[in-house]
Design a protein that fits this description.
The protein is of the alpha+beta class and about 210 residues long. It is about 15% helix and about 40% strand.
């Protein structure tokens, strides 16, 4: 570098203190990745769109006893997702096939938080996946049809399934973007909490 005074060019000099360090010890620095309510809403929308086979808006679900039933008519405009200190709450509606004139509308709902530690990221259910049915007029006698037992499998699939479109997989992918070593990602996970309109996953970095 140089400086000019009255037309003459002089070299500029700078001095810095030199500190000799024998060793530098790595330490853990905590941080957090925040996922907003809007982002979670989009993750749910993506997962449900995939579960109902996109524009077909219809799929068949199977219960633990092997019975199946077609569900259809998921309404994206009715999807609800909220986040507060108690967890991530959600609800959505669709129809279940019973008969042509008596297909009930199903409201599916639940609440969860995440567990994030050296074993990975998993779902902790604060309010287990549940459902309620609304029947068309004159169809009340069909309420004994065992539809409600099929719904938890659907919800768990949307949220926890090991597919690229599930909510858990999408959240995990977002967290991985912030980690320096994806092959040892679990070593950086240090818990998760929720607060108003945000899900937080805590990380520890070595510096």
């Amino acid at each position: 570098a140089s400086s000019t005074i009255e037309g003459y060019l002089y070299p500029a000099t700078y001095s810095f203190p030199l500190v000799r360090v024998r060793t530098v010890e790595a330490k853990q620095v905590p941080g957090a990745v925040g996922i907003s309510r809007a982002e979670l809403f989009n993750m749910f929308g993506k997962a449900l769109y995939a579960k109902f086979n996109g524009p077909t808006n219809s799929t068949v679900i199977t219960s633990s006893d092997g019975s199946t039933r077609r569900i259809y008519g998921y309404d994206p405009s009715d999807l609800g997702v909220s986040v507060d200190s108690t967890g991530v709450a959600f609800q959505f509606r669709f129809k279940a096939e019973v008969s042509h004139l008596c297909d009930p509308t199903v409201r599916a709902y639940g609440k969860f938080t995440l567990k994030a530690d050296t074993s990975g990221i998993s779902v902790n259910w604060r309010e287990p996946a549940s459902a309620s049915l609304t029947w068309p007029p004159l169809c009340q006698a069909l309420q004994l049809v065992p539809i409600l037992g099929l719904i938890p499998n659907l919800i768990y699939g949307v949220i926890e399934e090991k597919s690229s479109s599930s909510v858990l997989s999408t959240v995990t992918d977002e967290i991985m973007k912030f980690l320096p070593d994806a092959s040892n990602s679990n070593l950086f996970l240090r818990g998760s909490t929720t607060r108003k309109d945000e899900l937080l996953v805590y990380l520890n970095f070595l510096v």
